[in-house]
Write a structure and sequence with these properties.
It contains 14 helices and 14 strands. Strand 2, helix 4 and strand 3 form a beta-alpha-beta unit. The two termini are 35 Å apart. The structure holds pyridoxal-5'-phosphate.
Length: 383
């Protein structure tokens, strides 16, 4: 039996060719490939500035530093997200306030955001789960009304759109991930996107170990020196060479992903099984990037995953909601009953999805699932 992993990071001779080019042209010292990647990002996404960083986690930490988060500042975010969304602010003494998600999209609920605002609230962080946009119209309105910074953790959402505008262009700041588990990758990497002009200069210094090296690189000064806070956040040129290669073939990678996503969608949309509560919905005005395909099952989530595993199919679930994690309880606080977060996080199954997944293997996955979902149907509700 063939092993079908949950994710396979695309990596071919094209990436190796770009690394070789780096050596041949002796570009290791300069920002040759970072510049090319930033140009690509800026050409796609209507943003003021893009800085390549070594991870999305680093980009989120830069957000917390740029906002000058101080102890007792509250940052509203979904509980249903990856730890880095919260940890970045906790490192500066901030307090994450975990709010519920919408049942429909698994994205942060704007109604809950507004209810959770206090005098201490400094910012709202949204996460575009599975590359599907949050309700940016409503959320932008709230951030303006209460004069709060808006940050998009767009780790899943490169090239996704909300009403014809790319995600990453809505927040004062936004972050992308190019980790090997994401749609476009370079092993580990990310980008900080800046839409609020007032952060640009400070961000460049922060990005360059606290120096004004960016000005030096642009021949605006003769010598660079330490001017403000900073760290080693920048992406190295080897990773940038790999990332540029991924950018160049992004259309091909996305086309295949989207085809696979649609096949999952069509199958489950027609396949009525009482153990399936919901699948992702296609929403008017929202163009997603097929980052994740999930199903929400009524019963026996863990058993189904185990049955798939017996057939060498690696399906997974995530996240343990942050409000119920040891770290989240120590550093953050819950807002409201987080009903949808608790319900959905216990029932989600994410199915294998990557550009090199064969259609025949996808069929096999669906056939196994069909059998196993039906068997587990018989069981009574576990909650
Ligand atoms: C992957 C991910 C991150 C972290 O990205 P890295 O590049 O691995 O640091 C942050 N937030 C979300 C929502 C993610 O999925």
């Amino acid at each position: 039996m063939k092993n079908i992993p949950y994710n396979v990071a695309d990596f071919t001779n094209k990436e190796i060719y770009q690394i070789k080019l780096l050596k041949k042209k002796n570009h290791l010292q300069q920002n040759y490939f970072s510049n090319k990647c930033n140009q690509w990002i800026k050409g796609k996404i209507n943003c003021k500035e893009s800085l390549l960083v070594n991870s999305c986690t680093s980009a989120l930490e830069m957000c917390a530093l740029l906002l000058d988060i101080k102890p007792k500042d509250e940052i509203i975010m979904p509980s249903y997200t990856f730890v880095s969304t919260a940890n970045a602010f906790v490192l500066r003494g901030g307090k994450p306030v975990f709010v519920d998600i919408e049942h429909e999209t698994l994205n942060i609920d704007p109604v809950e955001i507004e209810k959770a605002i206090t005098k201490k609230t400094k910012a709202i962080v949204v996460v575009h789960y599975a590359g599907v946009s949050c309700d940016m119209e409503k959320i932008k309105k709230i951030s303006k009304k209460y004069n709060l910074y808006l940050i998009e953790d767009a780790a899943h959402a490169i090239l996704s759109k909300y009403k014809n505008k790319y995600l990453g262009s809505f927040g004062d700041l936004a972050t992308f991930s190019f980790h090997e588990t994401k749609n476009l990758h370079c092993g580990s990497g990310g980008a900080l996107i800046i839409n609020n002009k007032k952060f640009i200069e400070k961000a460049k210094i922060l990005h360059n170990k606290g120096t004004n090296r960016d000005k030096f690189n642009r021949s605006l000064i003769k010598k660079y020196t330490w001017v403000d806070k900073g760290s080693a956040y920048a992406m190295n040129q080897i990773n940038a060479a790999v990332l540029y290669s991924q950018f160049k073939k992004s259309k091909k990678l996305f086309d295949k992903r989207i085809k696979l996503w649609k096949k999952y969608y069509l199958f489950f949309n027609n396949y009525k099984n009482p153990n399936i509560i919901k699948i992702p919905r296609v929403i008017n005005g929202i163009k997603h990037n097929a980052h994740i395909f999930y199903i929400i099952v009524k019963n026996n989530r863990d058993k189904i995953i185990k049955e798939l595993s017996k057939n060498k199919i690696n399906a997974v679930f995530h996240y343990i909601p942050l409000h119920s994690s040891p770290g989240g309880r120590k550093f953050g606080k819950s807002f409201g009953n987080l009903k949808n977060t608790n319900f959905l996080s216990k029932r989600i199954i994410r199915l294998p999805l990557y550009s090199s997944l064969k259609f025949a293997d996808q069929k096999f996955i669906l056939n196994v699932l069909k059998k196993k979902l039906t068997i587990t149907d018989v069981k009574s509700s576990s909650f």
